What we know:
single chain, 16 helices, N-(1-d-carboxylethyl)-l-norvaline Dehydrogenase, domain 2, 3-stranded parallel beta sheet, 6-stranded parallel beta sheet, Rossmann fold, 3 domains, binds uridine-5'-diphosphate-glucuronic acid, alpha/beta
Amino acid sequence: MPIYEPGLKEIIEECRGKNLFFSTDSEKAIQDADMIFIAVNAPTKIGGQGAGRAQDIIHCENCARMIAENATTSKIVVEKGTYPVRTAEAIARVLNHNSRGLMHHVLSNPEFLAQGTAVADFKDPSRVLIGGQKTDQEATDKLVSVYVNWVPRDRILTTSTWSSELSKLVANAFLAQRVSSINSISALCEATGADVTEISRAVGMDDRIGSKFLRASVGFGKSRFRKDIMSLIYLCESYGLQECAEYWNHVILINDFQKKRFSEKVVRKMFSTVTGKKLAMLGYAFKKDTGDVRETASMYVVRDLILEEARVHIYDPKVKRSDMMAEFDYTCGINAKNTPKLDQLVVTATDPYEACNGAHCLLILTDWDEFKDVDYEKIFTSMAKPAFLFDGRNMLDHVALRKIGFEVHGIGKPDPNEFSDL
Length: 422
Ligand code: UGA
């Protein structure tokens, strides 16, 4: 399996060749299908109009062309990926210009599953959203009849195509906004001596607010949140809604601020210099239970630290060095050609102890459960002193770590050296 997703390998092994088939024969696959799901990527444009914000739906368009060319009967075409609002219209226009005079139906059925819990989310979704226009009623009913096999009917929502497409962007934007909201408060906590975990609990116990997605962190990662908000910003701008665009842009700005704030704090606390120092990093993926490194906050922290000439030794249980370096090059433009010392500055370790041996500080960047079970006494003994620990996920027992001897800094956690009244 090229990707790590808990439970996925087992499903594929069980179903492959029975009711799950992989093929590169698109012509036959299209002809045999009643329903066709489009799940191709729509990357953020890197040039031309809307560069850096607009999504490029060329792959969707190409799928529509392929279906129009090869289909010999009418199809239900389902947008499964996250695409800008009114992409379905573009797909339908391409599809319905076919030489056989066939009328295809296009539905929107965005995916809400999260990485790391994708299988569980798919089996027991909070909701299934199906968007179609009035003329697509029969097609909508057919798609509903697929999901009712395992999803209670009252969790299947049907809306217009445009509401469905926009809901997906809005759902991700709201999740990202909550993370940025609590992260902005974490900065205030560090300045005032309040504790962000206590605030999350106190605020989240209000049913109207809810407790989820209030964990302060080094910043949200994965390209999805950033891409969806950028797409939302571009949509707002396209419709002349500048104030709305600016509102959402601040969610991104706070996320960038949070990542920067973290690396600046590391340097500041370590006597304002990390030059030549070995820094250990546990976790590189954008969250636990995945090997995905796209837009991971860790990458930005590493970038900032190697610009200071620190040597960063990284351990992550599922991230491949090749993926790490490819993303580093793609997003930060840093590679072995323009940074000849890259292999000495960014080293990957095979376990946490190797990463930490002789290190001046330990950075926790991903919330992998296994990091709770590491022998921190052993790590402390092997590190240079003072041994700094920066917990970018607030996942460890800071009191116990301080007893061992670490100088611990969390996110939105008051520093006992600065506040004598704690
Ligand atoms: C997200 C959404 O949760 C899914 O509903 C959606 O389907 C998916 O994007 C998508 O469109 O691809 P995912 O990116 O897998 O899923 O992960 P999340 O659990 O949402 O976490 C996103 C980021 O926010 C991670 O870096 C995570 O560590 C961070 N986060 C999350 C926090 O910093 N604090 C929190 O309280 C929650």
